[in-house]
Amino acid sequence: MVSLTPVSPIIGLNLGYLLHLVGDSFSKSGVKWLLPFLDKAFHSGLGVVYYKTGFLEERIIFIVSTLLLVAQVRALNFESLFNLNIVQAISNVIKNATSFIGS
User: Fold this and answer.
1) Which pTM does this prediction carry?
2) pLDDT for 8-32, tens place per residue?
């Protein structure tokens, strides 16, 4: 079981925000990392690996990321914090992901 400290949520939220921005830098529109000093969007992926918001690639990234998150929750035994049945949680993720793809 992983123990949480009072600082853990703050670190988790900041790390999540940073990783979200890194992920957005792989989008076609990029991220303006130096705003307000420089109004230029920066892109990762060397112009080869990128996605456009609202397209199939973004949905695939969402599904893979969600499945990886569920696997991490299972591996770190976090499900006891949320009182989740992991099989039911994975089933719900897959059901929601397939309905998201179909929309």
Assistant:
1) 0.51
2) 778 878 888 888 888 888 888 888 8
